[in-house]
Amino acid sequence: MAAGAMASADRHPTWSLSYRERSLLPSSGSLTAYLLRLMSIKQTNLCLSADVLTSAELIDLAETLGDEICILKTHCDIVTDWTERTALALKEIARRKYFLIFEDRKFADIGGTVQKQYTSGYHRIATWSDITNAHILPGPAIVTALHKAAMDTIVKYNTKVHTEISADRTIPKVKDEEEQDPSNGDVAVESPHPEDNDDRRLSVTAADRKHSVVSVSTTISTRTESITTLPELDLTADDHSKLDTDAMLQRLGPIPFLRSLLLLAEMSSEGHLLTPEYSRRCVEIARDNRCFVMGFIAQRSLNTQPDDNFLTMTPGCQLPPPEEEGKKLGDGLGQQYNTPRRLIYDQGCDVIIVGRGILNAKDRRETTSRYRKEGWAAYLDRIGKKNG
């Protein structure tokens, strides 16, 4: 048994359950269940860490490699030309290629501050990122604060404001003035301008002393289809044999407009200060916030109680070149790498996060496929099945 690997008898039940089976557990939140089903259909447990500096390269990575991954991890604050168009492009590709977006923000401040960092400012992370993460250094209130901000964002998304404008172009007579010519236009209606909190202001001004009666009616309606629970899908092994991947993804449906959080319980850098006690506290806080916390950034599965069904996403994954297999890898800056098999099979992790192993490859597409296949094979071996 590999060093640090857990004996089979000591493994939590989630180690032997398939992603599809775990998605049906009552402890799976809606976004977690969606992700697990997506992973099962696409047969990938690979997250691409797209740490690039331009929007063009980020969008190209998403477009080129999106079919191979279940999650795209971003660092929007290192993208030098990030705009709202970047976020919209990523969301469109994610919808078409079926992967979630994970902004690796690592929030670590008091509640009021992280709410603003999450929803406001230049990046407005909550509007486009399905998943984000946080340290628990400030205490459990950071989780509840982010959860409230996420819920506010969801409610706002599902509230539609429709404004209709009509004008009575009858021009009243003005004593001692010449007849006004309606063809010249009597009202200047300025375009809506963005204001704080995304409110819109409509400016209606008179033009050349001419008058019209302007009627503005506003209708507020709500939409709930994007945040309802997932459709009942019995994705059995027989479904896999009868339907192709595209057909099954269509049955799965679009990514729901939901938000989830990962807690940073462990790190892959050498000498990190996240002690075992810190990791245990992360798990306790996650259990108290199951409706929002989907899992952890960690080096091993942290599921121990019977109803635990948290996902573990693990960075520091790298495949060595064929001639260097078995050699300890690192980057000279404290980062230590583990293979997909060690993380998925030996440590019980659920998603491998790969960055430089793909970004620095001569053929990114081929290398991404290699990581996906290695990670999936390790998962199938762990659950003892030929089909996930």
TrEMBL record:
GO terms for cellular component: cytosol. It comes from the Eukaryota. Pfam families: OMPdecase. Substrate binds at D51, K73. Keywords: Decarboxylase, Lyase, Pyrimidine biosynthesis. Residues 45-371 form the Orotidine 5'-phosphate decarboxylase domain. One of its GO terms (biological process) is 'de novo' UMP biosynthetic process. Residues 168-200 are annotated as: Disordered. Gene3D superfamilies: Aldolase class I. One of its GO terms (molecular function) is orotidine-5'-phosphate decarboxylase activity. Transmembrane segments: none annotated. PANTHER family: OROTIDINE 5'-PHOSPHATE DECARBOXYLASE. Belongs to the OMP decarboxylase family. This is Orotidine 5'-phosphate decarboxylase.
